[in-house]
TrEMBL record:
SUPFAM superfamilies: P-loop containing nucleoside triphosphate hydrolases. One of its GO terms (molecular function) is DNA binding. This is S-DNA-T family DNA segregation ATPase FtsK/SpoIIIE. It comes from Sphaerisporangium siamense. The keyword Nucleotide-binding applies. Residues 182-369 form the FtsK domain. It holds the Pfam family FtsK_SpoIIIE.
């Protein structure tokens, strides 16, 4: 008897030591723990419980199968089936075929073969139920090819804590944050020239503009600001801005200059048989211009009829830049709390030209719909579910046609101000820009070492 007691105590001590070692490993180096022990246990658990989970989430289908039994009243997945003959056709709940889950940085992903009559939307609808059944942060559904869906599972929200802003190293490209997949969130103006950045107050819009300023400041580009909050947001970045407008009248004059600059560049391209400034000989290529607009709605609001003409001119100029700017190196980044059609037809047309969409936390569903357009309804739900405690989190419509939850790196104002000061010598003067004196100063390999904020 004492031997048995010793044996039991020995086993218990051994198990306790194993659990402590696993716990320590998990806390010491989560990634290696996850890729070995964590993932293996999860993969086994997911495969073993898949029938139950699929049934609970409404992803199974009733199918008739021949069923063989030697036991009357045999139990099948649907419950008790009375079997009079040994082989009988019975209705069973068939689960979708699941491949082996593969580990990812923040969880795992698995491919599932759709059952007859199922569409990827059925899995998107069940995504929240799947997340709760598996006890994970989120399940995202994509369909890389017909008949298959990939369920990408994130165990914990990777956007709760972010590292620092890394350098992108490419012209007009800034890594502004992290996607929920763990990949970088990249704003590349040469691929997506114009962006809408919407969100309620304190949702992180200005922080994203700060990230862009820090990322673009060391690059051979001109930055232009429209700060309709009277300059409180962008005035301190003045050293790195080639021009700044802080009210409606200044904005109109600056927009007229930008349109004139665009027409000048158009003439230059035509004269050299180029379709855009990037096809011009290196010695003639003008400096790209990134236009940052804060509080876009202010440009469209009318206090009375007297402002109608001014608003119409502003709207036309912005729209022309949005329509033609890409080829001539003029890019827009438009921020606002609401970018809705209630501001007039000009805004609707402008919105249609902006293929880059960023929707921070919003107060009303219309703003999410207006910003993200007719993207997957799950994206709109996700935008409305962004909590106030995580400023900087946004839904991003990406270049690959997908949408992602993402979070910008936190860049305090003083860091952006510092970047604007130390790269002030790279600021082209507005007079030189409008007369074309800076031509030939941009080559793609000409980016100084980027600021590591
Ligand atoms: N990515 C982020 N990570 C952590 N904190 C952030 C992030 N983005 C913003 N914040 C915090 O949220 C606060 C509000 O951000 P921000 O000023 O960018 O919001 P906003 O949408 O521009 O608000 P407003 O419209 O009132 O100017 C910031 O002071 C900052 O502390």
């Amino acid at each position: 008897m004492p031997d048995l007691l010793h044996l039991l105590l020995g086993i218990l001590a051994y198990l306790a030591a194993l659990l402590t070692a696993a716990w320590t490993w998990r806390h010491w180096h989560y990634r290696s723990y996850w890729l070995t022990i964590g993932y293996t246990l999860t993969a086994i658990g997911v495969r073993v419980t898949w029938r139950k989970v699929a049934l609970g989430c409404g992803l199974t289908k009733k199918q008739h199968r021949w069923w063989f039994t030697v036991v009357p009243r045999a139990v099948v997945s649907t419950g008790l089936v009375k079997v009079r003959r040994r082989v009988q056709r019975v209705a069973v709940d068939v689960k979708p075929w699941m491949w082996l889950p593969l580990p990812t940085r923040y969880g795992w992903r698995v491919t599932v073969r759709l059952l007859e009559g199922q569409v990827p939307g059925d899995y998107a609808d069940a995504a929240e139920r799947l997340a709760h059944s598996w006890g994970v942060h989120a399940v995202r559904v994509s369909s890389p090819r017909p008949g298959r869906v990939v369920l990408a599972v994130t165990i914990r929200d990777p956007l709760v804590r972010l590292d620092t802003l890394p350098a992108s190293g490419e012209l007009l490209t800034v890594i502004v944050g992290k996607l929920e997949t763990g990949g970088p969130w990249v704003i590349d103006f040469r691929t997506v020239p114009h962006w809408l950045n919407a969100g309620a107050t304190q949702s992180g819009k200005s922080n994203l503009a700060n990230v862009l300023i820090v990322g673009l400041a060391p690059q051979p580009v001109a930055l232009v600001g429209f700060d309709l909050k009277g300059g409180v947001e962008f005035a301190s970045y003045g050293p790195r801005l080639s021009a700044l407008a802080t009210d409606r009248a200044e904005s109109l004059a600056l927009l007229d200059d930008l349109v004139a600059m665009m027409l000048d560049r158009m003439g230059l391209c035509r004269a050299h048989g180029a379709r855009n400034i990037w096809q011009l000989p290196a010695g003639l290529r003008p400096v790209p211009v990134v236009v940052l607009v804060d509080e876009l709605a202010e440009l469209y609001l009318m206090a009375g009829k007297s402002e109608k003409d001014e608003v119409a001119r502003t709207s036309t100029a912005l729209l022309r830049i949005a329509q033609l700017g890409r080829a001539f190196g003029i890019y827009l980044f438009l921020c606002g709390q609401r970018i809705g059609s209630d501001l007039g037809p000009g805004v609707t047309a402008l919105r249609a030209q902006c293929s880059g969409r960023i929707c921070h936390r919003v107060n009303d569903p219309e703003t999410a719909t207006m910003t993200l357009g007719d993207l997957d309804p799950a994206a709109l739900l996700s935008a409305r579910a962004i909590p106030a405690e995580t400023p900087g989190v946004a839904i991003v419509a990406s270049q690959d046609g997908q949408w992602y939850r993402a979070r910008s790196f936190y860049v305090a104002e003083h860091i952006a101000e510092h970047a604007a000061r130390i790269y002030a010598h790279l600021t082209p003067s507005w007079a030189d820009l409008t007369t074309g004196a800076h031509r030939g100063e941009v080559t793609e390999t000409d980016i100084p070492v980027l600021l590591d904020a």
